[in-house]
Predict the structure.
Amino acid sequence: MIAERRTKIKELLNVSTYGTDVVVKGWVRTFRNNQFIAINDGSTINNIQAVVDYQNTDEALLKRITTGAAIAVKGKLIESTGKGQKVEIKVEQLEILGDSDAEKFPLQPKKHSLEFLREIAHLRFRTNTFNAVFKIRHSLAFAIHKFFNDRGFVYLHTPIITASDAEGAGEMFRVTNLSFDNPPRTENGEVDFKQDFFGKTTNLTVSGQLEAELGAMALGEVYTFGPTFRAENSNTTRHLAEFWMIEPEVAFADLNDNAQLAEDLLKYCINYVITNHPDELEFLKNRLLEEEKQKPMDERSEMDLVSKLNFVASSEFQRLTYTEAIEILKNSAPNKKKKFKYLIENWGADLQSEHERYLVEKHFKKPVILTDYPKEIKAFYMRLNEDGKTVRAMDILFPGIGEIVGGSQREERLENLEQRMRDMHIPAEELYWYLDTRRFGTAPHAGFGLGFERLVLFVTGMTNIRDVIPFPRAPKTAEF
Ligand code: ATP
Ligand code: MN
């Protein structure tokens, strides 16, 4: 039994003193020529090579060194003569911790499609791609907390079960513990939710914003970072039914402050990954180049992943109003040549992702902050502009992603807010607690929602949002 403490492979690959005794524990990636084991322990996407003296090793033991098996090796760390690696381990003792039947183990030492790996999401962590993606996902989460903590924001935990529909969009998952076979009924035969667990109908939250506003109106600057749920039946590469959202809310802030905060946050996160994950980014950059070779020339990215991240982190986001954007889109080549699926004819049209991507990828060629949308296409809580037609909304659009942030300056004037709620059939009685912030010491404030997986998608250069969350939840998809 190898009892000594293991050293992580990441550490060993960086040392330049040879001849020391080391212990490594990890999973076999490949075993070549009955001699060379590539071991990965998760600490880095790089493997360490362990060299077995096969002539003096029991044959039965050698047979058990199969792809996927967990092993421990003890030996001397020596300079490697092979190319692509500085050090390797000359094995003195080898122990199988957990066998892996080579016939049955689904991950072979070859390239697997992302679609296939999605079906074995419980094992895909063991690939370099997902090692890199989930390391970066972790670091992005850490960077977000650090960014807000350094600025004095309070991390507020908003409820996951809620009785309100923040967006008024109605795409919510019902939470109940009533029996489906024989639920209690009212006199007119409807299901009696008064007898449900919470004494009313409840749902999984679609956003923590309304509660975050309550916090901001006392603590000043707060943010949420938690799971949100949307029962929207959109089977796209940008939507999940369960995703994580970051929602800062700031008192005494207007839309410009809000846009600046979002731009600073996004750049901070991107820079954090550039600084802390050079290996993972290099790997993902090459992965993407490889993937794009299958695409026609005009669909390939103009920049590689690392250049793109550096470019976005150092360029000023383009700010313009919805009205200005409509003019650009109306006069754009794809609109005139009727190439857009939804042609832009009138002011007031909702922007589709084809329009957002045209603005970002073709017209400005950098991230765009669009502001001041028509009130008809935005939520009830956004502040009405002087023109009476537009609201102080902002969407941030990213290349390859489309909308990554949605936010606004909030309507802090009670009468305006009540009017908007009436217009949009939002029941004011149920939201009395929200309106109380406008009754007692109301103040200008603003906030936004950043979709965490869309950020991870952008930074990792992955193309399907289901590949940047460990266990995706989407229509007809809830395995693991
Ligand atoms: P979209 O138009 O792309 O569906 P939305 O307008 O519904 O987005 P918001 O309600 O403003 O989005 O949510 C804030 C942010 O949350 C979005 O900017 C996006 O980054 C993210 N987001 C929204 N819906 C999803 C989803 N289903 N899956 C993953 N992220 C999402
Ligand atoms: Mn949506």
Summary: Residues 167, 230, 232, 238-240, 243, 245, 403-406, 449, 451, 453-454 surround adenosine-5'-triphosphate (ligand 1) (CB under 6 Å). The CA atoms of residues 315 and 366 lie 7 Å apart. Residues 128-150 form the longest helix (23 residues).
